[in-house]
Specification:
114 residues; six-stranded mixed beta sheet; 26% strand
Length: 114
């Protein structure tokens, strides 16, 4: 099995996508990357670990904070929420750590992994 990693951005419209993935899929663990607002207002249906970030922080700092918290093993990544800087920091952290990953998205035909 693998660990699910998702960014929860400011736009709450994409949170339902993340909530459904958490509810419907089975993961070894779940890591959500967000800010204080996201942690206070997002109510996942399963136990989640959090990485709290400030998007105004410099890129290298963001990348290192995320890299330090990434679980070992295969990662299932959702980039449906968040902004480019956060996405880039996550992908750079994954590359530096050498983790294998798949992207996941919900579609009209169900959950797709790439």
């Amino acid at each position: 099995m693998a660990s699910f990693v998702a960014i929860l951005g400011k736009g709450r419209g994409t949170w339902g996508h993340i909530a459904r993935l958490i509810q419907e899929e089975s993961f070894d663990n779940i890591l959500l990357i967000s800010n204080d607002f996201g942690k206070e207002h997002f109510a996942p249906s399963k136990q989640c670990d959090w990485v709290l970030i400030n998007a105004r922080t410099g890129f290298e700092v963001l990348k290192n904070i995320i890299k330090e918290k990434l679980p070992n093993g295969e990662l299932i990544i959702s980039l449906i929420s968040g902004i480019g800087k956060e996405h880039t920091a996550l992908m750079a952290a994954i590359k530096e750590k050498g983790s294998n990953y798949k992207l996941v998205i919900l579609t009209g035909d169900g959950t797709k992994y790439y």
